[in-house]
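Action item from last week, closing it out:
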Amino acid sequence: MRRALVAAAVLAVSLVIVPTSAADVPTITYTIDGIAGTNGWYRGSTYGNNVVVNWHITGATGFGTDCNDILIPGPTTGTARHCTAWNNDGSLTRYTNPPIKVDADPPTGVGPQLARAPDHNGWYNHPVVITWSGSDATSGIAGCSSVNYAGPDGAGVAFQGSCTDSAGNTTSTGGALNYDATPPALSGISVGSTPDANVLRWTSSDPAAKVVVRRAPRASTRSIVLFRGSASSFADKDIQAGAAPAVSAPVATAGTSGPGSEHAPSPATGPWAARSSSSHRAKPSRFAPG
């Protein structure tokens, strides 16, 4: 009997001193219920500007209340949480997750800036750079749009751009401008003579273009303006010998003008000339003879 009791005591001691295997140590992992953004950020979740940390524990007989699923409110530039689990044999694991960054708020104050003021009469007549800017209080601005606007032509032409923060949230805004980079042109220039007048006729590609009719002697560089306005014809009733009226390319509202040199048709009573320009072009250029 005594020998049996001694053997049992030795067995009991041996059970206590057996080391715990690695398989008995609790394992802790986690997942995040949220919308993944960029650069390690979360853009909130389906619950709003926050995420939920879900802990996953294996090989444990117990764990602390810090291992319950936990809501991390945003915005935040980094919030860490931990979880502790253990076994009955005394083995314990404590895990702290890396800081979780949450930003579901898009950039604010986003708007466009044009590189210069309109070229003429509220119109742009050659390409203009448009850049957007904005701010973001949590993750910061990652980038904003920049475009070199070069068309299409039109009044109140809409343009659109945006700014994006480091978490991937975007705010888009737009604007409008008056743009016309296409010079007007004259065509069909002709003259008809009557006993009382010479009638100059033309067609402008821009009906709103202002036409200027001038008279100058052939050998002179000086001229006088006979007519200025939006029209398609002019009757010269004060014909002067050796004086040449001439037609130049129209000038449009945006300040663009047509190509070439002055067009001077020659009626029976002698050559004369006219030129055209419109209110949104800076100054006319002369029309090449057709």
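Closing note: The longest strand covers residues 154-165.
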